[in-house]
Every structure is written in C-alpha cells, then in structure tokens.
Amino acid sequence: DDDIFSSAFCENSEKLINVHLFALAAKYYSLSNLGVCTPLEDVLEALKGDSEGATGIKPDEFMNSKKSHEVQVMSELVDNIANYCGIKQVIDIGSGKGYLSSFLSMQYNLQVYGIDSSSSNTNGAHERNRKLKKHWRAYQSRGTENLKSQGLEKANDRPVESEIKCKTINEELLNNANSLQNQDQVIIHDLVPSCGFTEMATPATNTETEANLVTGTQSHETKLSEAVLDILNVLPADAVEDFSSSYCNCGELCEEEKVHRKMTSLKAKARKSSESNLYFPLTSCITAETELGDIITDLEDCMMVGLHTCGDLAANTLRIFTAKPEIKAVCSVGCCYHLLSEQFENQEECHDQVWGFPMCQYLKDKGWCCGRNARMSACLALERVAVGQMLPTESLFYRAVLQVIIEEIYGVTKSDRHVGKTFSKSSSFIDYVRRSLKKLELDDSKLRDSCIMDYYEKYKHRMNELEAFNMLKVVLAPCIEVLILLDRLCYLKEQENIAWSGLVKLFDPVKSPRCYAVIALKNQSC
Predict the structure, then answer these.
(1) I want to staple 501 with a disulfide (CB 3.0 to 4.6 A). Which of 184, 389, 490, 492 is the partner?
(2) Which of 486, 500, 498, 488 is nearest to 526 (CA)?
(3) Residues with Cβ < 8 Å from 462, sequence gap 6 or more?
C-alpha cells in the first residue's frame, strides 16, 4: 500500500533509498496492473466483431512494420464501431500521410476525411496512393488465386457449403454489377461469407459442385477484370481529392471561404458517383473550437479517430467529440505528452485558453500539474527497454553537458527554441555543441574547442549516473502516462451524453509504445 511504498524514500531528505521498492510501486500503479482497461477482445465481442484481422490488403508492403501493425489493428476496431453505430463516414484527425485513412476507405469501404495541419503530409498521401496503385494488381491476382485454390479445396471437403458460397458470390456480382463497393468486397476477400443466406442449396456430387465452381470462378474473373479497371481509375492521384488550403482554420472562416469550400465539395461529389469508399485529405488546423461543418460540407453522422494525435490535439479531439451531435463515437490514441499545454504549470492566469491537461474537473479542482520533465518521462518506452532496446545514453549525455554549458557560459536557463535531432548529424561532441548553439541562436565564438572538451572530460565519469537516472525515469514513465490517460477517461465519464467510454490496449507496446486508445460511444438519442 501507500505506506509501504513511501518507505522507498528517506523521510528527512526525501531521497530515493530503495530502488527495488520504487520499481514495485511504479509497476503497481501502471495501467496494466490497475485493472481499468477494457480488453480489446471484449470490445470487439460487444460490437459483434472478432479479434482476427480482416483478409485482403496487406499494408506491410508499403508501410513499415510498426505502422502496419497499428493500422491493421485500429482499422478493424474502427470498422466494428462504425458498423455498430450504423455510420459510414469517418474523420481522421491528424491524419498525416493518410495511412490509416486510406486503409479504412479501401479495406472497409468507409468514406474518410483526413484532416492534417501540414500540406506536406497531403502530398505524402498522394505518394502513398501511388504506391497502392503499384501494388493493387498484385493484390487482385493474389486474391483470385486464393479464391480458386480455397474454393476447390472446400468443394472436395464440403460440397454443399462450397456451392452455397459460390452461388452467393455469383448472385452478388450479378445483382451489384455497378456497385464499386460490392465489387471491392468480392475482390479483396478470399470468399464472401454467406451471412444471412438462409436458402439451402440442393446437395450435389463432388463432380457437379466442382463444375459449378469453375463456372462461377470464370464468371468471377470476368467481373474481376472489369472491377479492377474501375478501381484503377479511382485509386491514383485523383482518388485523393485534395481540399488543401493555405488558410489555417484556427478561428472562424469567412463567408467567402465557406462558399468556396462548399462549391468544391459539391463539384467533387458530382464528378464521382461511386466515391463512398474514397479518402479525402484536408489541410486545416484543428482546435477545440473548430467547426467541422465549415471544413466538411457534407458532414453527416460519423465517428472521429486519431492515430497518435500529438500533444493537445488528442485532448481537442475528445472535446470536439463531446460537443458535436453528429459525432457518434471516438477512438483516439495520443502521443507526444511533452507537448501538452498545462493549466497549472505556470502561475499566469489565462482564463480563455483551452488546456491539454488537466481535462477532467476532478484534477482541475485539485490544481494538478505534471510539469514538462514528467511529461517528457511519460514518452519513454519501458517495454522496449525491457527487451533490450537500451536508451541512447551518449546522446542524453551530450544533451546534459550542453545544458551545463549554456547555463554557465550564456546564463540561459530557459528557451523557446529546441536542439532537436542534432546528435545524429554531429561528428563529435564539439560539432554537436556548435550545431546546438546555432539552433539556440547563441554565439558559439565565445567557446574555444578546448573549453568545450573540458566540459566533456569533467562530466564523462558521471555517464553511468546519468544512465541510472534515466532508467529510473523509464520505470516511472507508465505511472505518468496513467495520470494523463485517466484524466481523459474521467473527462468522458463526466459527460452526460456518453453511453460508454473506456481505455483499450490496442498495440504491442514493443512495436508501438503509445498503445492505449481512449474510446467512447454516445447515447443513441444524442
């Protein structure tokens, strides 16, 4: 309990005296131990889904393994939520290069609007779709071969079931020849499941069934070739309608801009009649006060998603969700806790500002503050360190010594500028210091190379201490993340229009350290 864990620190000096007890306390207060998370399998079961990934497009051919893992897991959950709520429109906040957005649209036939503040990310979305086009024919060929081989195998083992499934495929193709959505489902999936199919087929011999299957497969191939042509016409750059604008929507849009955006949207809809499963990247800055209807002119009942929304964007996503009646559900995975704005971090009163932390009234009443150092620690990845992916000790040492230099030589204790990823570009400690000083706009001519190396030699023997200190920060990281995530969950629990909300562990934390999603569904009457 708390009394036992408190003995990890000296009562008088408040210094850490029992590292083992400290580690046990940190584990005790981690999300995995507190029992506040809802298992992903339980959520999928409640939504009448399952935990097995959908067949079809394999994104690992045009995404790295981390992104592929995240997109496949999250997109399946989003699709289940959308089906449960009876919606087809998804708004992806902080969509970046559109990995999640495009996968949701192509794999699950959802209409996705991806909103990102960076126009360069919109260009990245175009490039990603170019790669999709490159691989698309291979996917179709692979899907056709799977259809043939799996169908023939099942025809030998279960002739009645094979005939039913083959009949289902042919009926759907004939009845929905002009529907891109249904063509896409037939192409992507190895076999269309016969859900809701109640008519029993007449038993047939293996020979008859195989003949019917071959005939059905040939018919499928004919439709397949037509569908591929249609889809290839949709997939390239013009499948990604770029509604980007140099205007940053951080306040109210002018009437002229609203009219322009509405006309653009209407023209796009008129130009494409079968665009229900397309991805539309939009360039806009999202705040808690953003009116989505000004950005998306055909806004309807929808859900909001965010895969690693940075800093305050995760908090603002939840605020928009609770405020807008059209948004029926939210699934948000945040990141970059160090970039959160904190209401009680500075003593300056700023009544009009909307803060990233705290969100819930409970912590606001207590005036709770984490501080930047704690939030930086929350970004560390304990699970990765546990499997041997050690911290970058040398770069952390460089940064620590640099801090001493700028305080002692330049008298600077705080700066709005950041060093960034200077270490990877530096050939030596001297080079690192000079590059960093230039980024901080400090005059490096004050320092001789010998002076820089004197600082390095002075603190070099303490590198092990720094490594130990950072390991303690890593151990504590999950506890700080718990505080931030529970604050967001409590905020949702305080809202009257929420039917259910919870924290769900979506990803393997070794592959993707920020692995927890905040999920909520509104009352059906809202």
Answers:
(1) 492
(2) 498
(3) none
Domain membership flag for residue 224: no
351 with 494, same domain: the answer is yes
Give the separation between CA 317 and CA 339, rounded to whole angstroms. 15
CB-based contact 173:220 (threshold 8 Å):
yes
Among 118, 116, 51, CA closest to 309 = 116
Total count of residues recorded for the chain? 526
- CA pair distance 498, 513, nearest whole angstrom: 28
Question: Is the distance from CB of 69 to CB of 511 less than 8 angstroms?
Answer: yes
| pLDDT one digit per residue (tens) for the chain, 526 residues | 567 788 899 989 989 999 999 999 999 999 989 999 999 999 999 998 554 545 556 666 667 889 999 999 999 999 999 999 999 999 999 988 888 998 898 889 899 999 988 766 656 665 666 666 556 455 545 555 554 555 555 445 444 333 333 333 333 333 443 333 333 333 223 322 323 323 333 334 444 444 444 444 444 444 443 443 333 333 333 333 343 333 344 445 666 666 666 666 655 554 443 444 577 777 788 888 888 888 888 899 999 999 999 999 999 999 999 999 999 999 999 999 999 999 998 866 666 789 999 999 999 999 999 999 999 999 999 999 999 888 889 999 999 999 999 999 999 988 878 898 999 999 999 999 999 999 999 999 989 999 999 999 999 999 999 999 999 999 999 999 999 999 999 999 999 999 999 999 999 999 999 999 999 999 987 6
**432 lies in the same domain as 373:** no
- Give 330: exposed, middle or buried? Use CB within 10 Å, 0-12, 13-18, 19+: buried
- 171 Cβ contact list (under 8 Å, min separation 6): none
State which residues form the domain around 454. 393-460
Q: pTM of the entire structure?
A: 0.71
Rg, C-alpha atoms of the chain: 27
Structure tokens at 42: 């339980």
| Tally of domains within the chain | 2
Sign of the Cα pseudo-torsion (263, 126, 337, 322, in order): positive
Cα 276 to Cα 181: distance, rounded to the nearest angstrom: 8
Whichever domain contains 363, its CATH number is 3.40.50.150
Closest by CA to 104, choosing from 127, 132, 124, is: 132
